[in-house]
Amino acid sequence: MLTKLHSEKAFTAMVRRNEALIYKVCLAFASQHGTTVEDLKQEILCKLWEGYGGFRHQCSESTWLYRVALNTALMQHRQEQHRPEIRPLGTFEEPQASDEGSDQQQLEALYAIIARLEQDEQKIIYLYLDRLSGKEIAEVMEMSETNVKVRLHRIKLKMKGMAQDEEQL
Amino acid sequence: MKNNFDLEKMQELWNRQSQQLEGRQLISDEEIAAAITPRHSWLPKAAAVAALLLMAGGAALWLSQTQQEPATEVTAMLTPSPQPTPITFEDATPQPQADEGTPIVRKAHADAKRQPLLPSEPVTIEEEPAIEVMPEAAVSSDLVCQNLQPTDMVETNRLVTFGERKPQKAVLVEGHNLVSTSPIPSDLHPFMARHEEEPEATPEHPTFRNSVIEPLLACIL
């Protein structure tokens, strides 16, 4: 019983230390996957608690959190893809002309491009945007640093191509 | 975004947004508690254990009932009712069994069998007067059945009298028992007549006449 209480306190403290990290993952993936930030946040917290007993601190806390949060977000995306999207009538609005000055709109355009990437590519580019080093990305992705650099270069080219395609449309 | 895609610029935007999130409580205590609570909930485990116990108890009860059921039923069937309706048995042709020493039980009258028995109506069989067990030795040779018709069935070796004729012993022929070894008029029974007309079996071993004389005669003629 005491062990449980202790682990609950430790878990709560860990979540508090890394709540920005968790929330940013939710912001990035909830908007593009048709789920709410709150739902995704709860799902990630449940998965973190489920895996917390097996966390052996062999990697850093943030690395483990990134892995669980990104995997949960992408898993949620896979489940959402099988469900038909239900939207009330009147919500199908024409996309408004984007204001270039709006950071939020630029970020949403970025999320839309990221959503078209492969799942591993989405994780890598997310970690890159979150200013993780090549070594840290390699640790989270459990691959070599060189592999990360090569893949990151290809992803950047791919995203540029996607952006140009959108411009032509 | 429209003119050129600059990922470095996107990274700047991303970090600016991240900095805005710093210092704010983004995850409430309730959300953390909600994630933790299901893990140490004892209800699912308790429900599973209770279901297992119920299943085990039910299986044990069913097994015990299955073992006790036949005895209970027999007891209920043998319990006499307050006003029994006895079935009367009349003497009919006794049907002794072929096995030696096997008890012979007299059959009930056919009418008694035809009486419709309602399921709710309790029936008690009177054991002593209705059922008579006779040893086969007493029946086989000493009992003489009077005034039997030729079509009646009598077991083998029974002495049979047709009207005022001499008693005859029945033998089994063609599935019917009523055939005598002594001469019987052919008008009595078709099987008897056929039995009498049957030629005597030729001896198995060759005689002098069969083996020598008859072939010679056949050759000459």
Structure description:
The complex is a heterodimer of chains A (169) and B (221). Helix content of chain A is 74%, strand content 0%. Chain A is mostly helical. In chain A, α2 crosses α5, α6 crosses α8 and α7 packs across α8. The longest helix of chain A is centred in the last third of the chain and has 24 residues. The N and C termini of chain A lie far apart (61 Å). Chain B has 221 residues and is mainly alpha-helical. Helices cover 43% and strands 5% of the residues of chain B. Chain B is built from eight helices and five strands; from the N terminus they run αααβααβαβββαα. The termini of chain B are far apart. At the A-B interface, α1, α2, α3, α5 and α8 of A face α1 and α2 of B.
Give the helices and strands, then pairings.
The complex is a heterodimer of chains A (169) and B (221).
Chain A: H1 2-17, H2 19-33, H3 37-52, H4 61-82, H5 103-115, H6 119-129, H7 134-141, H8 145-168
Helix pairs in contact in A: 2-3, 2-4, 2-5, 3-4, 4-7, 6-8, 7-8
Chain B: H1 7-21, H2 29-36, H3 43-78, E1 104-105, H4 110-114, H5 127-130, E2 133-134, H6 136-140, E3 144-145, E4 159-160, E5 168-169, H7 190-197, H8 208-220
Parallel strand pairs in B: 3-4
Antiparallel strand pairs in B: 1-2, 4-5
State the gist of this model.
Chain A is mainly α and 169 residues long. Helices cover 74% and strands 0% of the residues of chain A. Chain A starts with a helix and ends with a helix.
Q: Cα-atom Rg of chain B, whole angstroms?
A: 48 Å
> N-to-C SSE series of chain A?
HHHHHHHH
Strand content of chain A: under 5%
Query: Major beta sheet of chain A, specifics?
Result: none
Share in helix of chain A: over 70%
The oligomeric status of these chains comes to heterodimer
- Low-confidence stretches of chain A are 85-100
Radius of gyration of chain A over all CA atoms, rounded: 18 Å
Bulk shape of chain B: elongated
Largest sheet of chain B: 3 strands, mixed
